[in-house]
Amino acid sequence: MIKRLLCVLAFGWTVATAAQAQTVDLDAATITQLAAALDAGRLSSEQLVRLSLARMDAYDDVGPRINAVIVRNPKALAQARALDAERRAKGKRSPLHGIPVVLKDNFDTADLPTTAGSVLLEGSLPPDDAFLVKRLRDAGAVIIAKVNLSEFASGGAYSSLGGQTRNPHDPLRTPYGSSGGTGAAVAAGYATLGLGTDTGGSVRWPSTSNGIVGLRPTMGLLSRDGIIPLALSFDTAGPMARSVTDVAVALGVLAGVDPSDPATHKSEGKASADYTTFLRPDALKGARIGVAREFFGQDNEVDWVMEASLAAMRSAGATIVDVRLPKWLMDSKGEFYSSVRLSEFPVQIEQYLATLKPGYPKTLGEMIDRAYRLPAPRADGSGPNGSRWSLFTREKRSAPMTDGRYTAVHDHALPLVTAALNGLMAAEKLDALVYPTSPRRPELISAPAPAATVPGGPGAADGGIHLASLSGFPELVVPAGFTADRLPVGISFVGPAFSEGKLLGLGYAFEQATKARRLPAHTPALKGEKLSLGPR
Fold first, then answer.
1. Rounded distance between C-alpha atoms, residue 401 and residue 407, angstroms
2. Using CA atoms, how far apart are residues 185 and 152, in angstroms rounded to an integer?
3. What is the residue-wise DSSP string for 233-298?
4. How far is CA 256 from CA 214, 220, 265, 476, in A?
5. Parent domain of 280
6. What are the distances in angstroms from CA 67 to CA 184, 350, 522?
7. Could you count the other beta carbons within 10 Å of the beta carbon of residue 38?
8. Nearest Cα to 474, choosing from 442, 443, 504, 439?
9. Three-state SS for 155?
10. Alpha carbon distance 309, 492 (integer Å)
11. What are phi and psi of 394, to 5 degrees?
């Protein structure tokens, strides 16, 4: 009897010790794990924010000079301490309580400038927070920085105010745009979670290029209130993180109806308060996955990663089906996108500018005039962005939104694209359509800049990015592997409207089967980033 009791006590001590000794690298910790450690008192939000700021100190302006941050929140540590005290006194507000977040600098923040990366809006403090920013703050998240972007969310990962952002996997390569600062910051570990925006690939390109998870949600699932517009027919916010779990947690906090954004009424009854319930490691078993091979054949190593990804899904029990997209869609998707995108910006940017304080431009014409006054860099390093500013003139000359060239696409072609993709998925009984998010590895920053006549992003005409933009469908990007020169490759999962739960489940199962994500070589772990997650 005594011997059995001793064995039980020894077993209990071993289990307790193992639980107490459980550790994880900061880079690998999910929001769920961090929240558990915060609840247990093994970790504080103040510690997390300090770790985030330390990585910015080590890697943003020095070392590899990632240059993702435009402005830090000077009150971040004080806010983290207050949230720690609140947790102890009242418990947590949400799974994001005390979690560090970075925002693309086109989300309105009443306490930090919102500039779209442009010297034209330098120092602008909007009247209030964007709807999603308010949701994050109400959930207890700590906004630690506003990060760089393609200026006014279009073009390469460069802005006149923020300069060039670099890819933490290879600082000579682009992190892509327009949410390049968010993608680089999350990959480099500046924050657990980031918010980007996506019009024609601006969450998805940086997610694949930086080797992280990103979601362009169904149009209408997330509010666009307080986001500087590019083209509201396509604009949406999207969470970016290092794991599918973190994207699922964030989406549950962010999704829902906003009375200020009529598009969100479509999500009523379709949004979930907890998308983590869809995360099953066996979600690929029995799934039918369609492969759009039209987007293969541009980079042998990207194609190899894709074939390895399809093999992994087969091993997990999925049926892989090659499908063919309509030729008219392949031929027209870029033109459809440009027709709407270029016509909407002049009208919608002026609606946003009207909300700003005196002293800022109120029209696209004023923006062009002011841009002409900065032909050389300033003493502080900010300077002209000729590639983006040249595009202003094309946007200004674009067909008005009353013109048949716009209405024909907006009113007739876009519903046709949606119907075609719905028809394809129904006919093939697909759970998702997959393709390489970018058909080619990230380009060198020194490569020739994309022409101003191509507003859809680098390589958009050759990839599948426009499918979700034109249809309003959700698209989830998950790290899939690396090329021989250690550059990330992502795979896209596309589904019909409001199928985020299913896509997150499939993406999670794929992520768990492949475990392809890696901490970027140029932003390695720092001292003190080994976290103890067990109970006290």
1. 7
2. 19
3. TT-EEEEEESSHHHHHHHHHHH-S--TT-GGGGGGTTT--S-GGGG--TTTTTT-EEEEEGGG-SS
4. 19, 9, 8, 19
5. 23-532
6. 9, 29, 13
7. 23
8. 504
9. coil
10. 11
11. -70, -40
Greatest CA span in the chain, whole angstroms? 90
Distance CA 291, CA 296 (A): 10
Helix/strand/coil percentages in the chain, nearest 5:
45, 15, 45
CB 4: neighbour CB atoms within 10 A?
8
Residue 517 and residue 485 in contact, taking contact as beta carbons nearer than 8 Å: no
Query: Considering the domain boundaries, does residue 146 fall inside one?
Result: yes
Beta strands in 168-219 (DSSP E): 193-198, 213-216
Instruction: Indicate whether 365 belongs to any domain.
Output: yes
Q: Which residues are CB-contacts of 308 (< 8 A; sequence separation ≥ 6)?
A: 480, 481
- CATH number of the CATH domain containing 313: 3.90.1300.10
If one counts every other C-beta atom within 10 angstroms of the C-beta of residue 128, the result is: 14
* Catalytic residue annotation: 104, 178, 202
Q: Spell out the SS3 assignment of 349-418.
A: HHHHHCCCCCCCCCCHHHHHHHHCCCCCCCCCCCCCCHHHHHHHHHHHHCCCCCCHHHHHHHHHHHHHHH
Angle at CA of residue 302, ends 485 and 446, nearest 5° = 55
Q: Helix axis angle, 131-138 relative to 244-254, nearest 10°?
A: 110
Split into its structural domains, the chain has a count of 1
d(CA 119, CA 373): 11
The answer as to whether 432 is a domain residue is yes
Residue 50 CB contacts under 8 Å (≥ 6 apart), including other chains: 77
Both tokens assigned to 117: 């990366």
Residues in the chain: 536
- Kindly report the pTM of this predicted structure: 0.95
Report helix, strand or coil for 158: strand
Structure-token match 């949004």, residue found: 271
**Residue 8 resides in a domain:** no
Q: What is the pLDDT along the chain (536 residues), one digit of tens a residue?
A: 444 433 433 333 333 334 455 788 999 999 999 999 999 999 999 999 999 999 999 999 999 999 999 999 999 999 999 999 999 999 999 999 999 999 999 999 999 999 999 999 999 999 999 999 999 999 999 999 999 999 999 999 999 999 999 999 999 999 999 999 999 999 999 999 999 999 999 999 999 999 999 999 999 999 999 999 999 999 999 999 999 999 999 999 999 999 999 999 999 999 999 999 999 999 999 999 999 999 999 999 999 999 999 999 999 999 999 999 999 999 999 999 999 999 999 999 999 999 999 999 999 999 999 999 999 999 998 999 999 999 999 999 999 999 999 999 999 999 999 999 999 999 999 999 999 999 999 999 998 765 544 444 555 668 999 999 999 999 999 999 999 999 999 999 999 999 999 999 999 999 999 999 999 999 999 999 999 886 66
